[in-house]
């Protein structure tokens, strides 16, 4: 695996891509961070470490607001603008690109995937609703992605537990993988009957298996 960082100018400002390249890649998984952190998130780092050995180049994307050092995420419209602006850099290797992200980044991927021609969508810790506000559902963003979609969700996530998600339909298919004892950041309490390492392994194995089934 080789790693390289690339700056990309977008209409929303300068974005940054950290490439974790597979030696013989067959696709690119581009994943962005959420509103409360950056690409140092444990799930993003786990994917970047594990997937290149499976022939998947992982591109960790930092949105312009994060690159600029701001503490508060930009509005959804601006996040989408930044993602669309950096997309041409993601397709340069000439490989199919799966759009992904965690939390707010997952929402961006869902909203833009069809228009950008993404091969699929990976939604990590999708924020189905604000904590304690299940009536404020964002399910339509997820089910309306227009692309094969995998949701990876902790069973203690206050932004939406797995059982709160709508059942997939024939018109809006998606798959959901549950991560036992994990919260919105996929953190597992020490008292749980599993480990943090096992939780991250659940994520990387599920994502790797799903990407292997994508018709690309």
Compact overview of the structure:
The protein has 216 residues and is an alpha/beta fold.
Explain what you see.
- It is a single chain.
- The chain has 216 residues and is of the alpha/beta class.
- It has helices at residues 42-50, 64-67, 76-91, 104-116, 139-143, 196-213; strands spanning 2-10, 13-21, 27-32, 56-62, 97-102, 120-124, 149-154, 175-179.
- An eight-stranded mixed β-sheet has the order 1-2-4-3-5-6-7-8.
- The model has no long low-confidence stretch (mean pLDDT 95).
List the helices and strands and how they pair.
Elements: E1 2-10, E2 13-21, E3 27-32, H1 42-50, E4 56-62, H2 64-67, H3 76-91, E5 97-102, H4 104-116, E6 120-124, H5 139-143, E7 149-154, E8 175-179, H6 196-213
Parallel strand pairs: 3-4, 3-5, 5-6, 6-7, 7-8
Antiparallel strand pairs: 1-2, 2-4
List its traits.
30% helix, 8 strands, single chain, 216 residues, eight-stranded mixed beta sheet, 6 helices
Average pLDDT confidence is 95
Report the biggest beta sheet as strand number plus sense, adding barrel if it closes.
8 strands, mixed
Total helical elements = 6
User: First CA to last CA: what distance?
Assistant: 22 Å
**Which overall shape is indicated by the principal axes computed on the Cα atoms?**
globular
Order of helices and strands: EEEHEHHEHEHEEH
**Roughly what percent helix?**
25-40%
* Gyration radius over CA: 16 Å
Quaternary assembly: single chain
Structural class of the helix and strand makeup? alpha/beta
Instruction: Give the low-pLDDT segments.
Output: none
Proportion of residues in extended strands? 15-25%
Strands, count: 8
């Amino acid at each position: 695996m080789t790693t390289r960082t690339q700056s990309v100018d977008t209409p929303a400002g300068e974005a940054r891509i950290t490439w974790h390249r597979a030696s013989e890649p067959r696709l690119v998984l581009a994943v962005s961070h959420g509103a409360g952190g950056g690409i140092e998130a444990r799930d993003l780092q786990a994917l970047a470490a594990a997937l290149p050995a499976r022939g998947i180049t992982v591109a960790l994307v930092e949105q312009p607001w994060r690159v600029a050092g701001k503490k508060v995420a930009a509005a959804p419209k601006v996040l989408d603008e930044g993602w669309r602006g950096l997309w041409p850099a993601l397709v340069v290797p000439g490989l199919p690109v799966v759009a992904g992200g965690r939390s707010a980044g997952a929402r961006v991927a869902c909203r833009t995937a069809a228009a950008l021609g993404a091969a699929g969508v990976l939604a990590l810790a999708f924020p189905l609703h604000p904590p304690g506000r299940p009536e404020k559902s964002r399910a339509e963003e997820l089910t309306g992605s227009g692309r094969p979609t995998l949701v990876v969700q902790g069973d203690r996530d206050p932004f939406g537990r797995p059982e709160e998600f709508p059942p997939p339909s024939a018109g809006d298919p998606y798959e959901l993988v549950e991560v036992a004892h994990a919260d919105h950041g996929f953190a597992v309490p020490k008292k749980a009957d599993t480990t943090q390492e096992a939780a991250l392994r659940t994520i990387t194995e599920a994502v790797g298996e799903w990407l292997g089934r994508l018709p690309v």
